[in-house]
Amino acid sequence: MKLFTGFNLAVVVDVKTTGLDPQTDRIVSVVLIRANFVSLQENPSGMYARTWDVLINPQCRIPKKATSIHGITNKDVADEKTFSEIAQDIRDFIGYEPVIAHNVALYKRFLNAEFKRAGVKTLSRNKSFCTKQRFRESIHFRHLNSSLDNVVEVMGAERHKGEMPEAVKDASLTLQVAGLFYLIDNGFMMYRGNIRSSSKKIDHDNFDEAMNLPNETPTPEIKLSDETPTPEIKLSDETPTPEIKLSDETPTPEIKLSDETPTPEIKLSDETPSPEIKLPNESKSKATKFWIIIIVIALLLLYFG
Prior knowledge:
The chain is of the alpha/beta class. The protein is built from 10 helices and 6 strands, in the order ββαβαααβαβαααβαα. Helices cover 34% and strands 12% of the residues. A 6-stranded mixed beta sheet has the order 5-4-1-2-3-6, sandwiched between helices. Helix 5 (104-118) links the parallel strand 4 and strand 5.
């Protein structure tokens, strides 16, 4: 099921034709309502919209069967412009906004066929939302008749009083049904049987004033109240961003020999004289006797020699 989500602005379309075949039949009426759906979040009792409706000379006869459905006669369109003469104006009004209709696939096929014949860019890249399909696929409504009149009755949309062209009336009712689905699908309203008390009023006069949102307006979001600001991580003034810094009392370390630690040197102390060989007393006595004996022997040899 394609829900009515992911957009703020959209164009509701209603097309009346000479028949049901986009290749052989022609458009005789186009109604476009450019609506600001996001305004429903602020004011569920109404939305801002701008309407453009135009009759078109199809350059062929309108069958009586078709006239009996939409009420447009050959006389009504005899002096009107052809589709090719206003094709670019219609395309510019729609722009690149999503297209909404009750049976949007059929209406887009008719418009695209006319655009191609006029040499104008088609709606192939515009998103589509269908009130008829959304109604059919809903668990609440799938067993019910999905004609626009019945959907309006079930959904509780408000029918406009007074005379107006059938096409304009249908487009206006489609817009109200689309607005109800928009509120339900985006979580701003719960479905509880017939929701006639929540039907929408359309403010056609103040649309331009409310169009402060560009085409790139993001998808609606749930906003936190003023008392609950969006959380963010922020360091307070008393908590500066941490940094590594050496304090004045902690100078950069360096290798330095202190005055009390002179360069080491080898020095013989006065108390450590140069080593000498010293014979002990016992060894001295033996040496003396040895030399006495030698001297005695020498004297004897000289005497007897």
